[in-house]
């Protein structure tokens, strides 16, 4: 007897697509830069990933309606702040439209002067390398130029439209699988 194929539908709306994509758990970043008057700007971004080790590249996808993206494009550089689970309020602030997102946020300048948000797990200063079309988003590839220090804290996670955090103990994949991960550093410290 032929195996029964799993149920699937090719008739779905954007809400159902969101629900399906929401099963994929991500971290949360805030991507920041300075505008032409050196005012800090930024937005919350989950569509971020490590793309390449050699050269060191990252990828993120801003909506075409994002007010921050044209500012990043003009400046040509940005900082990816990887949020810790102490920064849920930071994610909420940068994930909603607002003129004055930085009014209650403490930050320090990166080597290029761009905003590094305090208490982030780590940060990466990048330059824009290429921009591609991605439907209602842009696909931005950036080159990592400066790495910030790493805090020993837990990450902020986003899953099914809500926040959560990791709990110990965690399960580590088999050694041979790890070798292929961009985000594994090869030592005994999996950060
Ligand atoms: C957890 C979280 C993840 C988000 N991920 C993205 C993303 O990957 N790309 C994006 O364009 N917007 C994302 N957003 C929404 C933007 O942060 C939001 O639309 C923000 O208001 C955009 O600000 P801006 O218009 O000042 O750039 C996310 C929001 C939250 C809360």
Could you characterize what this model shows?
With 191 residues, this protein is α+β, with helices and mostly antiparallel strands. The protein has a single domain (25-178), classed as Pnp Oxidase, Chain A (Roll). It has four helices and twelve strands. It has helices at 14-21, 68-75, 88-94, 175-178; strands at residues 26-27, 29-34, 40-45, 48-52, 57-60, 77-82, 107-109, 115-117, 122-134, 137-147, 156-159, 162-165. The strands form three sheets. A seven-stranded antiparallel beta sheet has the order 3-2-6-9-10-5-4, with helices on both faces. A three-stranded antiparallel beta sheet has the order 1-11-12, with no helix packed on it. It is globular and about 70 Å long. It starts with 13 loop residues before the first helix and ends in a 13-residue tail after the last helix. The structure holds flavin mononucleotide (FMN). The site of flavin mononucleotide has 18 residues, from strand 3 and helix 3. Residues 28, 43-47, 61-63, 66-68, 91, 94-97, 158 line the site of flavin mononucleotide.
């Amino acid at each position: 007897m032929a195996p029964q194929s799993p149920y699937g539908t090719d008739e779905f709306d954007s809400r159902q697509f969101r629900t399906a994509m929401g099963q994929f758990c991500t971290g949360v970043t805030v991507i920041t830069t300075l505008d032409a008057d050196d005012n800090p700007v930024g937005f919350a971004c989950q569509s971020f990933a490590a793309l390449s080790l050699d050269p060191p590249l990252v990828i993120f996808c801003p909506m075409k309606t994002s007010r921050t993206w044209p500012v990043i494009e003009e400046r040509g550089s940005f900082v990816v702040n990887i949020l810790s689970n102490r920064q849920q309020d930071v994610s909420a602030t940068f994930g909603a439209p607002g003129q004055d997102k930085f009014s209650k946020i403490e930050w320090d300048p990166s080597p290029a002067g761009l905003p590094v948000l305090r208490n982030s797990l780590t940060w990466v200063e990048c330059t824009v390398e290429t921009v591609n079309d991605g439907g209602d988003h842009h696909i931005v590839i950036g080159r990592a130029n400066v790495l910030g220090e790493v805090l020993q804290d837990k990450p902020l996670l986003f899953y099914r439209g809500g926040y959560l955090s990791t709990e110990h103990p965690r399960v580590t994949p088999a050694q041979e699988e790890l070798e292929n991960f961009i985000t594994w550093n090869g030592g005994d410290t999996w950060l």
